[in-house]
Amino acid sequence: MRASRRRAAAETSGLPAFADDSGLAVDALDGAPGIYSARWAGPDKDFGRAMQTIEDKLTAQGAREASQRRAHFVSALCVAWPDGHVEEFEAKVDGTLIWPPRGGQGFGYDPMFLPDGHSRSFGEMPAQEKHGLPPRGKGLSHRARAFRKLADACLDGGWS
Question: Of the listed 20, 21, 27, 94, which one is catalytic?
């Protein structure tokens, strides 16, 4: 994430600037698709095709066992203030890629991602369970975890 662009936006506007990005990193694919996760879905945003591409690459490598299909979602947040101060937060959730995909909730690669310690894919979990923070949700997602770090920094006086 380019903090310099956020800083320039904040300084120019006189208001805080915020940006986030996330992606799926597959260990057996050397971290791909990573920051290019959305691009793998193509201009028509066909994540069914993107999931099939990942599955094809894993199959070609003989990655059939759960231990060979490790992956994690990563989320990065950046907040820049008009005075030039920048804060960055990153969080991840580890899991295993499953095939065939399960569930119609969420978006992107959620149906093929089984978070550690759970029996349902992100595609099978309602948004409140996946993204919601306690007490209403479990804050399981990478985004929820990153936003929690941001909130903790704000509320705990982490920015001085």
Answer: 21
